[in-house]
Amino acid sequence: MGKGRLEAFSDGVIAIIITIMVLELKVPHGTEWETLHPLIPVFLSYVLSFVFVGIYWNNHHHMLHATRQVNGGILWANLHLLFWLSLIPFVTSWMGENHFAALPVALYGTVLLMAACAYFILSRALIALHGKGSPLALALGGDFKGKVSILVYAVAIPLSFVNAWMAIALYVSVASMWLLPDRRIENTLVR
Amino acid sequence: MGKGRLEAFSDGVIAIIITIMVLELKVPHGTEWETLHPLIPVFLSYVLSFVFVGIYWNNHHHMLHATRQVNGGILWANLHLLFWLSLIPFVTSWMGENHFAALPVALYGTVLLMAACAYFILSRALIALHGKGSPLALALGGDFKGKVSILVYAVAIPLSFVNAWMAIALYVSVASMWLLPDRRIENTLVR
Amino acid sequence: MGKGRLEAFSDGVIAIIITIMVLELKVPHGTEWETLHPLIPVFLSYVLSFVFVGIYWNNHHHMLHATRQVNGGILWANLHLLFWLSLIPFVTSWMGENHFAALPVALYGTVLLMAACAYFILSRALIALHGKGSPLALALGGDFKGKVSILVYAVAIPLSFVNAWMAIALYVSVASMWLLPDRRIENTLVR
Amino acid sequence: MGKGRLEAFSDGVIAIIITIMVLELKVPHGTEWETLHPLIPVFLSYVLSFVFVGIYWNNHHHMLHATRQVNGGILWANLHLLFWLSLIPFVTSWMGENHFAALPVALYGTVLLMAACAYFILSRALIALHGKGSPLALALGGDFKGKVSILVYAVAIPLSFVNAWMAIALYVSVASMWLLPDRRIENTLVR
């Protein structure tokens, strides 16, 4: 079974997720600088989530590029990932509109954690299909960054209730780690 | 006539349907656990509909994979399916916001029933075009699961007015039946 | 210059237009039959517009199928068509929420008229590029249906102020005329 | 690494941006001509932004057409462009709903400026990857129009606070300059 429609459908869903988040930037009444102030935390949340969704699209792109085939289980592992990503606009708004209060920050991290787990499951399902010696498996390797991300989220979520800004700092550090493109796959694969 | 744009357009519409449903998860005012409580039924409705739309995308993907060509009638049979799927966000919200009251649950089932009928019509139109001995026709077979789904919806809709939770249980059972990927086509077709 | 991205972008925009219209079906407060009553004209408008947008997608699909190449002017002729189509959700809602009052019905027809003119311009630009003896030009022929549609809209718009339902009847008759797939192109082209 | 998904994802995001802007044309209460009056500036803003997003799609299409390959850095340069484009619906609404007041007009120009810079960065990253003697580099040339656009925006933004209509006139003049398709690439490349 070809991977073309899996890529096309994922591109569509991720494109919509990344774009509808901006609908939460409600147009203010008034034309003064002050009317923009309440939007600042909403905007910062948007930037953070844009980067996270961009990271997922980027990594998804790389992983699927190394993929040769898919099956029914992988279609569902992919939908599972898209499900958690689809909740990002909701938690982004809740966090932004409440100025990074404890519970919204924790829930934001929970959705990131679940998305990271879903991505991990998808990558393992792809490796199981292609074999442990496949270029895909070699390219993904031990998925060090994926495991570290899950660990950091697991620390950040309870930390939100102590100090939400420290949790945010941990989320930002995960994003920074990933912003470097996934050279593992680019380097390993010889097109 | 090629099937490429039919797949691309369907992917686009289904991707939008599955994603805009999340816009009905209205961001609550307040940052306490209690403010999330009213969202629980809306969230559960979202999960159920996400699974149903995912099933349709999955089955559509499989069926079109086995398709060799399309014609004007099939374009409209496909638009007819997309029409009923496009109503899922509306009935999902109405059901979720009203805590699974009788009429919304019945209307939800009606939209599922109409989508199932539209899918059946599309599959018959494809078989008529490809011939009864085609790989597509063999792969779809008697469409046992499709017929059972229509039957279960037809029972569940009036049942909603007796006990809405029993209707929901029937919808969940249909989804569970389909969650197993459609191995018929995967097995029958030798690529 | 290839036509692939023109098709993909048009598919994306049309898929979004056809899907966001359903967002105007606002979820009612209450779970009685009566709460659905105000939605009936909105729903009927939605059905009519879904059919019109479906017709445009279908005809666009056929016309581009017969197209060999595009240029910068055609990209803009296509964007011009997408512009008028993008206004359909707005006029659909205005017409539906006001129970087919005169001015909204006239404006709905005006948007349909402009979209029909934009489609005509696009088809002429494609014929100019491919030559009058090209398969595309032969397939499109004199575009009888396109010219009739423009004429009927031009009659229906002023008629809206006399009797809105007669204008609606004319819109429905145009849709019915087009619902038959555009066999001209299917028949003329030998794949 | 292929450019296919980069094009598909960009098409998806740009298609959504250009379409969700129309959601800001709120359906008026009432069916008189007067109820449409407050929408006129919102509509004019929509037309302007539709043209700008159309220009970006058009130029992106041309530039990627001449592109042979992409890498991780280019994926992020492209996401950076999409980020600024995604803010266009917000500034369009704010400007339109406030009848082209000074600050919204300046912010609109700022988003256009940032998008133009992001496009410039993307084009330089592509040239760096393909080499200064590549068809892409020759086709893009010194990017005279891109540099003029950035200069005009930089003048228009402070001018908004003196006379917002002069700033608007400058934005319109930039759009007019670009509306002519980018013949440089069409002419230079021999397919």
From TrEMBL, chains A, B, C, D:
From the UniProt record, list the reaction(s) this protein catalyses. Answer: K(+)(in) = K(+)(out)
Topology versus the membrane? Multi-pass membrane protein
Entry keyword annotation includes Secreted:
no
Key words of the record: Ion channel, Ion transport, Membrane, Potassium, Potassium channel, Potassium transport, Transmembrane, Transmembrane helix, Transport
Q: Which residues cross the membrane?
A: 9-27, 39-58, 70-94, 106-129, 150-174
> What are the subcellular locations of this protein?
Membrane
Q: Does the keyword Membrane apply?
A: yes
Which Pfam family, giving just one, matches this sequence?
A: TMEM175
Question: In Gene Ontology terms, what is one molecular function of this protein?
Answer: proton channel activity
> In terms of one coarse class, where is the protein primarily found?
membrane
Q: How is this protein annotated for GO cellular component?
A: membrane
* Similarity-based family: Belongs to the TMEM175 family.
What name does the UniProt record give this protein? Integral membrane protein
> To which species is this protein native?
Polaromonas naphthalenivorans (strain CJ2)
